[in-house]
Write a structure and sequence with these properties.
It is a single chain. The protein has one domain: 3-Layer(aba) Sandwich (Rossmann fold). The protein has 232 residues and is α/β, with parallel strands linked by helices. The chain is built from seven helices and ten strands. The chain is globular and about 55 Å long. Helix content is 42%, strand content 23%. The strands form three sheets. The protein has a six-stranded mixed β-sheet, with helices on both faces. A hairpin with a 2-residue loop joins strand 9 and strand 10.
């Protein structure tokens, strides 16, 4: 496969992911109040993936996004709670679809007080393993920062090589900063996303999927207006 074909494949893969999010209701359009208090014209949550088929497909898209970098990580870490099924399903999809076997790991909100008394579940690092963080979105970055601090304190010899999120909202935090860039700068950990909100606008605008248009002219304008106010 030449570089042009690889580029075309990636383009189709992003389109497939966007349509998957829209048709499953993981990406909704309307009016939603975010945790920050902002009124957003769209909302994204991986909580909709609560059955075997959809969570496996979600894991497949993450796996497809990271499979070319399999030498850069040994273990996939998902912060509790939303990151847990992401890490597990991505690990499964890597093994089943791409024949790449990687460990998964997630943390407990509270350390277990009996048995092994561990603060983690899964493939715990024993030496200099490379860790890939995985989560759904980047809002304030607080969950990811806590995860990094906890991992580094518990496993001082590891290297955290990257963070992968599903959707980059491409907007500022409460202080007017790009939370993604602030995280990268603070921890020297590169952040990548499967898609961005601008990818969504480009592909989904006025596109008919199974007889339905998910993103019409009005909704596109609403999102563009929102990004004008809060975009990075």
């Amino acid at each position: 496969m030449n570089s042009k074909e690889r580029k075309s494949l990636m383009k189709k893969y992003k389109k497939d992911f966007i349509e998957f999010l829209a048709t499953t209701g993981a990406l909704k359009f309307g009016e939603f109040t975010l945790k920050s208090g902002r009124k957003s014209p769209y909302f994204f949550t991986t909580g909709n993936f609560n059955a075997g088929e959809t969570i496996y497909r979600l894991g497949y898209f993450y796996a497809a996004a990271v499979k070319g970098d399999e030498k850069k990580f040994d273990i996939i870490f998902g912060p509790a709670y939303k990151g847990i099924p992401l890490a597990v399903s991505t690990s499964i999809a890597l093994a089943k679809k791409f024949k790449i076997d990687k460990g998964y790991l997630f943390d407990r909100k509270e350390t277990k007080e009996y048995g092994d008394k561990s603060a983690f579940v899964g493939c715990e690092p024993r030496g200099n393993e490379k860790i890939l963080l995985i989560d759904d979105v980047m809002t304030t970055g607080k969950t990811k920062e806590d995860a990094v601090e906890k991992l580094r304190a518990s496993f001082p010899h590891i290297t955290i090589t990257g963070l992968v999120i599903a959707l980059n909202r491409e907007e500022t935090d409460a202080d007017g900063n790009d939370a993604l860039k602030e995280f990268e700068k603070k921890y020297s950990i590169p952040v990548t996303s499967i898609i961005t909100i601008h990818d969504v606008l480009k592909h989904l605008h006025n596109k008919t999927i199974d007889g339905k248009i998910y993103l019409d002219d009005v909704m596109k304008e609403n999102i563009e207006r929102y990004l004008k106010d809060y975009g990075v």
